[in-house]
Amino acid sequence: MYQKIIVVGNLGRDPEMRYMPDGTAVTNFSIATSRRWADKATGEPREETTWFRITVWRKQAETANEYLSKGSKVLVEGRIKPDPNTGGPRLWTRQDGTVGASFEITADAVRFMSARGEVSSEQAGGGDLGSAPAQEEDEIPF
């Protein structure tokens, strides 16, 4: 069996990098994707934003932490990591009592879409963050 997801979006905040006890780098960041359409009944513009939590390992983690920042546009290829209890997205209760969901992706490849030093650009800048596939670890220290 095989699964692959490709997501293009903008970072919602700066990446956070940590090191595992064995020295392996791991970086987390969240990206938002949006789609826009016109409501068929009213013709009013509508927008839907979906958030993804991304985990990147090893050299790619170090590079992502160094070059990405809030607002950067990235393309992430990877696999969805389901919640072990539900098999779906991770669910939690927000402060206002509503239920939230987090779609979590373990990245195999991360590519810059913004030019270096540029945030939220529509220009494609390229720049693959490493060719070796990322490895999933069981425990993330945060």
How would you describe what is shown here?
This protein has one helix at 58-67, and strands at residues 5-11, 16-19, 25-38, 45-57, 73-80, 90-93, 99-112. It is mainly beta and 142 residues long. The chain has one domain: Beta Barrel (OB fold (Dihydrolipoamide Acetyltransferase, E2P)), CATH 2.40.50. The protein has a five-stranded mixed β-barrel with strand order 1-3-4-7-5. The radius of gyration is 16 Å and the shape is globular.
Query: Which whole number gives the mean pLDDT?
Result: 83
Q: Got a strand count?
A: 7
Tally of DSSP helical segments? 1
> What is the CATH-assigned architecture?
Beta Barrel
Give the structural class: mainly beta
Looking at CATH, the homologous superfamily is Nucleic acid-binding proteins
Radius of gyration: 16 Å
Q: Under the CATH scheme, which class?
A: Mainly Beta
Helix content: under 10%
End-to-end Cα distance, whole Å, is 30 Å
Order of helix and strand elements from N to C terminus: EEEEHEEE
Total separate domains: 1
CATH T-level topology: OB fold (Dihydrolipoamide Acetyltransferase, E2P)
Q: Sheet with the most strands?
A: 5 strands, mixed, barrel
Uncertain residue ranges: 120-142
Order of strands side by side in the largest beta sheet?
1-3-4-7-5
Principal-axes shape call: globular
Q: What share of the residues does DSSP label as strand, in percent?
A: over 45%
